[in-house]
Design brief:
InterPro entries: ADP-Glc_PPase, ADP_Glu_pyroP_CS, GlgC_bac, GlmU/GlgC-like_hexapep, NTP_transferase_dom, Nucleotide-diphossugar_trans, Trimer_LpxA-like_sf
Pathway: Glycan biosynthesis; glycogen biosynthesis
Strand content: 25-35%
GO molecular function: glucose-1-phosphate adenylyltransferase activity
Structural class: alpha/beta
Shape: globular
Subunit structure: Homotetramer.
Largest sheet: 10 strands, parallel
Helix content: 10-25%
Family: Belongs to the bacterial/plant glucose-1-phosphate adenylyltransferase family.
Number of helices: 9
Radius of gyration: 22 Å
Number of strands: 28
Length: 407
Amino acid sequence: MMPKQEVVAMLLAGGQGSRLGVLTKNLAKPAVPYGGKYRIIDFPLSNCVNSGIESVGVLTQYQPLLLNEYIGSGQPWDLDSMNAGVRVLPPYQRSRKSDWYKGTANAIYQNINFIERYNPDYVVVLSGDHIYKMDYSKMVAFHKEHDAACTIAVIEVPMEEASRFGIMNTNEDGSIYQFDEKPKVPKSNKASMGIYVFTWSKLRKYLEEDEANPKSSNDFGKDVLPAMLNAGERMFAYPFQGYWKDVGTIESLWESNMDLLNPNVDLDLSEESWKIYSRNPVMPPHYVAKDAKVQNSLVAEGCNVYGEIDFAVLFAGVYIAPGAQVKDSIIMPGARVEENAIVQYAIVAENAVIGKGSVVGARPEDMENKDEWGVAVVGSGCVLAPGTTVPPKAMIDADTLAEEGSK
């Protein structure tokens, strides 16, 4: 038995992230690079340590290798103590009936023994694919103050967009009386953020009952939370104000990176009181050549910029050649944009090479049919031949190039 922890956080990081296409073909979604020097999982991990939560379980499943290596001992987030810290928790066979994580609730159920080691009073369940800053200790205090069995963080969304979310319908005191999963006619605009605080004794009971139900899909939103509500448990909505983005699609990932370049967006990564920690690639300072043009951009360490960039996010080790233009785009670690190539409204993944004179993406105002416009994506390790054109919305990976080359 470890020393008692009042709160344990369980971070669900096993999602396949299929809507991110080639970016998650060989990479878990929480490990996708973000914001010039981070990976998505840095945000919930940093929120935990900033909130005073010392014990964090990270539940991995899909393509976990890089994510496991990145988390390591937890040292970058100060989560490497002997009796607490961060632990990577892949599915394992503890009985002949054990299986992969079948759903979000089953993932927590399979790790009951891990949670019990700390004898917690409360368990915070988090998603590994959201960009936001949040003090979970305030949410736990709210949960205790309301003597709740479950507290769900909610954010107000525009009413016209509410049908895209799980909506919490609440009484005047904030207690939840109904869940609406993507309602056609929503009653409120309080959208679930996928962040939960549970009283552990209550949660364990419902996890065990859910696991015993052969008809259950073993999911929090579909099964466990409705069961708690139907049983009359005290459930409350915790209102969150601030920046929050689910970066589960190409468009939302691109938008969230571009938000960092917008002074009117409430997401300050330089805030001293709430730092977002990450694993440092240990590279020399970036270099911007005399003839280069750099505007409205983030440029990480190890970059060499000789061309023109505007509204660009460059990760560590990126090379922008003379004559190259990168606008409204994200260039991930180690990628190269060669001479006279044009990249606009695009995401270029790690270690990709955009060949000389290639054109990736297009500006929406230059499109005759606006419905055909979208963010273009070049996958990890792709090497585009000189003069290649990648149209808007296209997703190119190494396998696609190999197939085209064999024709």
